[in-house]
Write a structure and sequence with these properties.
434 residues; 11 helices; 59% helix; five-stranded mixed beta sheet; disordered C terminus; rod-shaped; alpha+beta
Length: 434
């Protein structure tokens, strides 16, 4: 039984791959069925049909052969095949009595038209074919107009139209489902690629935030230690202690970040190493130890949402790192965080000359050796700040101040809208340092 079913399946696949062979086989089977039916006398309706009670005329056999041969082209020329078979069937009804079942080919041709066109065309062509053939059978036949043979013509042609329309609708439905599934698959792949790109960007931004600040401070303190090692060893030891503390902090944060990247699955709650304004004093202390005077005015630092709190902290961290690297000797910085309505405004000002990295072609800033040799020479600092701020639906501007110095100003909505696409013009700035 399994072998038989597999054989049928293979034959079906072969016929589906060779439609012309299938149509030729269908035409031959239709011809055999018409010829066999033409030897059958339906009788008067009170008894069973009698096979061999009549013999078809040669003209009827010719019409049956022509209509069956036309079915070979039913897929390529459906309307033309229907017109030919319907015309030959009408000729059979008009000239022959009793007529041979030439209408069988018309039924198959009408089904093909209904399955390959739209519904309005099916209605128009189907009604025309049904009415024309039924009228020919009623008017020119020797049987009464209400005989079952005449109504059988109407029923079979109507059934062919309905079946063809149903097959067309189902085929369209299946195609729509397949197209929707393919589109959903493409959408999932595009979404996966987009999320991978966003995750790579987030990881790069976090690693920059973790590493750049500490490495910049290590660079500065190492330069100070090398500068004063011979004349002021106590100050050199103090600078080296700051180097050790900054490197330890960088290693700890890197260890936590790498640990998060190695986790399997998504954590139930955010566990990103995300310091906030609550530890702003420790951040400012590292810059003061590096020789940068910083004044802080921060209100409601513990009342901001976590995402906004982290973004504000990272903006201040990057801005102060820029000041330390590029503002030059004797620069001072001011940091303020205030709530204005439904937003939090973060401002970082400095009065530095801005000779290093602030103007095209500028040389390194004055100061101890190593000052200005930052990790972020590729220019990703303000890009990362801008991405953080715009991802929350805020705006960031950065540029030189009138009279000297530099200003970084970020406006963050208290209700963070994470994941929004960047909007043009929300984070524009001039005079970017990086």
């Amino acid at each position: 039984m399994t072998t038989l079913s597999s054989g049928f399946a293979r034959a079906r696949r072969w016929l589906r791959d060779h439609p012309l062979a299938f149509d030729a086989t269908l035409a031959f089977c239709t011809l055999v069925a018409m010829i066999c039916s033409s030897f059958t006398d339906p009788g008067d309706g009170h008894g069973p049909p009698a096979f061999g009670a009549r013999t078809p005329e040669l003209f009827s056999v010719l019409l049956m052969t022509l209509t069956a041969a036309a079915l070979v082209l039913r897929r390529r020329r459906p309307m033309q095949v229907l017109a030919v078979t319907a015309a030959l069937a009408a000729v059979e009804y008009v000239l022959m009595d009793p007529p041979a079942p030439v209408v069988m080919s018309t039924v198959i041709a009408l089904y093909t038209v209904a399955s390959r066109t739209d519904r309005p065309t099916t209605w128009r062509v189907g009604l025309l074919t049904m009415g024309g053939l039924t009228a020919a059978a009623m008017v020119f036949g020797s049987t009464p107009w209400y005989s079952q043979e005449n109504f059988g013509v109407f029923a079979w042609t109507g059934l062919a139209s309905a079946a063809g329309d149903a097959v067309r609708s189902r085929r369209a439905f299946v195609d729509a489902i397949r197209e929707r599934a393919e589109r959903a698959e493409r959408t999932r792949e595009e979404e996966a690629r987009r999320r991978v790109a966003e995750e790579r960007l987030r990881i790069a931004r976090d690693l920059h935030d973790v590493v750049a600040h500490h490495i910049a401070l290590v660079n500065v303190q190492a330069g100070v230690a090398a500068h004063v090692m011979d004349k002021r060893p106590d100050q050199a030891k103090e600078a080296l202690a700051h180097v050790r503390d900054a490197s330890r902090s960088a290693l700890n944060e890197l260890r936590v970040t790498v640990g998060l990247l190695r986790q399997q699955g998504d954590p139930e709650a955010p566990t990103e190493p995300a310091p906030g304004l609550a530890v702003l004093g420790e951040l400012v202390a590292t810059f003061r130890n590096a020789g940068l005077p910083v004044e802080v005015a921060c209100a409601d630092r513990d009342r901001l949402p976590a995402a906004v709190d982290l973004a504000a902290y990272r903006v201040i961290q990057e801005a102060l790192t820029n000041v330390r690297k590029h503002a030059g000797a004797g620069a001072r910085a001011e940091v303020s965080v205030v709530r204005v309505g439904a937003t939090a405004e973060v401002t970082v000002l400095d009065n530095g000359r801005g000779s290093a990295g602030r103007r095209p072609g500028a040389g390194p800033a004055d100061g101890p050796p190593g000052d200005g040799d930052g990790l972020d020479s590729g220019g990703h600092g303000l890009v990362g700040m801008r991405e953080r701020v715009t991802a929350l639906g805020g705006a960031l501007t950065a540029g030189p101040r009138y009279g000297g110095g530099f200003r970084v100003h970020a406006i963050l909505p208290v209700e963070a809208r994470t994941g929004e696409p960047d909007r043009p013009g929300t984070a524009g700035g001039t005079g970017l340092r990086r």
